[in-house]
Fold this sequence. Notes:
Elements: H1 5-14, E1 17-20, E2 32-35, E3 39-43, E4 61-65, E5 72-74, E6 79-90, E7 94-100, H2 102-105, E8 109-110, E9 117-118, E10 123-132, E11 138-140, E12 145-153
Antiparallel strand pairs: 1-6, 2-12, 3-4, 3-6, 5-11, 6-10, 7-9, 7-12, 8-10
Amino acid sequence: MVLSDRSIAEALSTGRLVVDPIGEDAVQPASLDIRLDRHFRVFLNHREAFIDVRKAAEDLTEAHEIEEDEPFVLHPGEFVLGSTLESVELADDLVARVEGKSSLGRLGLLVHATAGYVDPGWRGHLTLELSNVSTLPIRLYYQMKIGQLSFQNLTTSADRPYGHPSLKSRYQGQHLPTASRIHRDYESGA
Length: 190
């Protein structure tokens, strides 16, 4: 079942859920608002002819940081990686879903392509997969509400939560938007 505002507040107070810094009025009836940080990874078009999932993706993107009042302009059809202002920590028996804000979705902003699931045991800032499917550029700002997290309890604690050594978790503890690390699946011993 999805956690209600009361259950989210309880999880925050007991430390089963840690969100830092938590925004004012962040807890909604059945979700928690998350905000956009100032860091992005922007794809460098025409550097490569294609994306090869067997190769590191860091060279396909470059870091970009905006100032406090400077907008980041997301153009129609553009895809960039962003990051949440909040660091999130989940207990071993709690999962989260990243969802967009309705008001932003109505403008054509998508906040995740496929990575909307946050595993039990996760720690770090969430990387957002930002896409503009509208026909006009969208200005994004540091600290704006960009999405929301909904939470569910597992039936039991996970035996091997995210970050467990046997899982080879790729993104535990990330702070900045992080490029794909799928190439590690093709390294010897993976």
